[in-house]
Amino acid sequence: QVQLVESGGGLVQVGGSLRLSCAASANAYRLDSMGWYRQAPGKQRELVAVVEGGGALNYADSVADRFTVSKDNDKNTVYLEMSNLKTEDTAVYYCYYNPYPWTRDYWGQGTQVTVSS
Q1: CA dihedral in degrees (43, 22, 60, 82; nearest 10)?
Q2: pLDDT digits over 7-33, tens only?
Q3: Beta strand pairing call for 111-116 and 10-13
C-alpha cells in the first residue's frame, strides 16, 4: 500500500505564500503522475496542479499565474509553491499520485490551507 505524506499547510494572510510537499512511499518512476487537488467547504474536489506522466504540467485556470507545481523524481516528492494567495484558495489540499501505468489513484490525507483577509 502506497503512503502519501503531506506537509506545509497552514494559515496565511492574503497575498502571502506557502509551500506544500508530498512524498510517496514507493519507488519513483519518471512517468508517474503526481500533483494536487483541493476541496473547499460545500464544493467538489477540484484539480489544482498536476505533473502528468511524461512531465506535462496541468494547472487550474484560477491558479496558473500564481502556483507552481514540480516533482523530484529522485525523492518521489511533489511540491506546490503557492504565491499571492487569495481567500478563495482556502481549502483542504490533497496530494494525488497515479503511478505508471496509471491504473490506480492514491490520495493523501489532506492538509488545510487557510487564507485570511
Answers
A1: 100
A2: 999 999 999 999 999 999 988 788 899
A3: parallel
